[in-house]
């Protein structure tokens, strides 16, 4: 892709304020090095390389086994102006050159510490995540959990019974409509906002817990101190919390006990936000009607873990954000932000 | 409940046209016999009896084992002015006294014949069904199927894998978002109308097949002759057809072959609308991506039936319409129509 092509793309961009001045002269910007430790298939890598040219992608000398593990420092990192993927925290903090990190997940656990936040603030380092890429799939995933529970899907798919048999009548009577029920969302970001949209036709009573309600949530919000009274009446409690020092084991024995008996708990956030021993006890006692988890601590749970066999616990293996052409979506999301970065415009999904 | 009480209820009814004349003098109406062969628990039966008083409920001398089987003629039926449940076709046709039948299901298969329709028309017999009671649950049920398929729920619930393993990457890549996909509804009644509402936030391309489009569907409609071209591009095909002579094996080998390769088929209508041999072949060949069936022919499928074991076929045992307090919902729905009947007002869910 030539320089000319890039300029044409910028001039064509719907995001450009056509009535305003000429776009910032990004062509004057020195060539940037973009460190990418996200492993990409050749066609998607080409999309990324073409999309950033004439700037260039540089690669780690070693690659991570998983996006959720820290690969450790990499010698190539020192040359990076921008990083895309899951770059090593110490390397970020050690670099004086780095200006922007785009994390390839929605979660930013490893970066979400007071020290990192302070360092980023003092140096003007930008941190964005990829929540926009995963929000739709995560919202649909946890919404699927809610409906599957209401319609008793796991049991129904394994039941072959005659009409009007006792088992049939029981299964029909246990089945529910979501319409008119109540739900509490713990955390309010892109996933929660989308879930609220998906739930709209069900005329549910929805409220959301947020550390700092902003008033733009579109549903009633409350601060964590009010949680016990709210969860005492909700049919569904949806954990969409990120993992950080404040959220670790947020769902503990005390809060589980405050949940309305028979209510359903869902986790599409992070596994460590739940005290799993307390969750297991609540499920076994029948206080909690059921749990649906896309995240656990650790992932996967070790063979023989009791949450794997308690019948009212349903676990998917952190596939909530998954969708076809995921890597391509991540790269396109990065490229959108890269264009904004070159224009000095506000980036999407900025978290620091 | 006294006569006075009933009059007060009528005068309070929101359905009454307060600006119009006095309501029809239902108190002049002779006491009506309401034949009910729907087996009710004592509290729900009391709701029904109180609701119709001073008119009275009469019972069959023998009761049906299932709402979907025909119990045959019953001696008590000859005294009935109204019937609620699943009354015997021959008894209905033999009665000169009967004026209205409310079927306790959404399906009216046993009554939906040219002979029965002609007899009902010539005698002014009204037939209503209970589709309003089941539409919400059925719409939520098939919507659950669509989301469970998109999120690969049956596989995901049984998969315990490490991040970035090949199995994990595959499962995430196979997962989909419903957003932006296309769906064709076969049949358009209360269930389809509600499903269209539930799908609204997903910005899907929706169209509906209807024998006689009325223009009030809110989505593009087409007649059955145009089906092949429409299903050639749809990601989801949802069968909501009733069972009658026209719909039997409507989904046959030819129509299955016309469906877009990899598309998903759902049946929340009636099992007999599908040629199951052709369905099996299409699933086994991989032409159809998957099938999700709440209805089969017969129900349940006999032990060893190949649809029970083909991995991309998911079956629930006709629990689509099930919901808590179902019998109570049916009785309340009947009582609503009973009030309208006494007022000579148009009945809800009238099908003949």
Topology:
Two copies of one chain form a homodimer.
Chain A: H1 3-12, E1 33-36, H2 42-52, E2 56-58, E3 82-85, H3 89-94, E4 100-103, H4 114-123, E5 126-128, H5 131-150, H6 153-156, H7 166-174, E6 182-186, H8 190-199, E7 205-209, E8 221-222, H9 227-231, E9 236-239, H10 253-258, E10 264-267, H11 276-285, E11 290-293, E12 313-315, H12 326-342
Helix pairs in contact in A: 2-12, 5-8
Can you walk me through this structure?
The structure is a homodimer of 352-residue chains. By secondary structure, chain A is α/β, with parallel strands linked by helices. The first copy, chain A, folds into 2 domains: 3-129 and 325-342, Rossmann fold, CATH 3.40.50.720; 135-315, Rossmann fold. Chain A is built from 12 helices and 12 strands. Chain A has a 7-stranded parallel β-sheet. Chain A has a 5-stranded parallel β-sheet with strand order 2-1-3-4-5. Residues 1-25 of chain A have low confidence and may be disordered. At the A-B interface, α5, α6 and α7 of A face α5, α6 and α7 of B.
């Amino acid at each position: 892709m030539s320089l000319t092509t890039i300029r044409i793309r910028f001039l064509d961009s719907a995001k450009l304020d056509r009535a305003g001045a000429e776009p910032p002269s990004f062509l004057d910007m020195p060539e940037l090095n973009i460190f990418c430790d996200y492993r990409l298939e050749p066609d998607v890598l080409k999309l990324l390389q073409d999309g950033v040219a004439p700037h260039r992608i540089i690669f780690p000398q070693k690659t991570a086994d998983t996006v959720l593990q820290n690969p450790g420092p990499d010698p190539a990192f020192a040359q990076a102006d921008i990083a895309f993927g899951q770059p090593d925290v110490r390397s970020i903090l050690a670099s004086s050159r780095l200006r922007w990190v785009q994390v390839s997940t929605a979660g930013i656990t490893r970066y979400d510490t007071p020290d990192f936040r302070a360092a980023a603030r003092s140096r003007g380092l930008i941190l964005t995540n990829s929540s926009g890429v995963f929000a739709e799939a995560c919202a649909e995933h946890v919404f699927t959990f809610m409906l599957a529970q209401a319609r008793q899907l796991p049991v129904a798919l394994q039941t072959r019974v005659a009409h009007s048999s006792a088992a049939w009548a029981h299964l029909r009577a246990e089945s529910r409509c979501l319409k008119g029920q109540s739900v509490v969302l713990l955390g309010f970001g892109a996933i929660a906002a989308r879930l609220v949209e998906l739930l709209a036709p069900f005329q549910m009573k929805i409220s959301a817990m947020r550390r700092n309600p902003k008033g733009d949530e579109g549903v009633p919000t409350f601060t964590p101190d009010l949680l016990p009274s709210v969860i005492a009446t909700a049919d569904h409690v949806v954990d969409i919390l990120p993992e950080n020092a404040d959220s670790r084991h947020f769902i503990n024995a005390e809060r589980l006990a405050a949940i309305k008996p028979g209510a359903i708990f869902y986790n599409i956030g992070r596994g460590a936000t739940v005290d799993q021993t307390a969750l297991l006890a609540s499920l076994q006692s029948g206080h909690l009607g059921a749990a649906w988890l896309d995240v656990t601590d650790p992932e996967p749970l070790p063979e023989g873990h009791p949450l794997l066999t308690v019948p009212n616990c349903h676990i998917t293996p952190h596939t909530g954000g998954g969708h076809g052409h995921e890597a391509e979506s991540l790269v396109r999301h990065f490229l959108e932000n890269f264009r904004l970065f070159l224009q000095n415009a506000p980036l999407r999904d900025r978290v620091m």
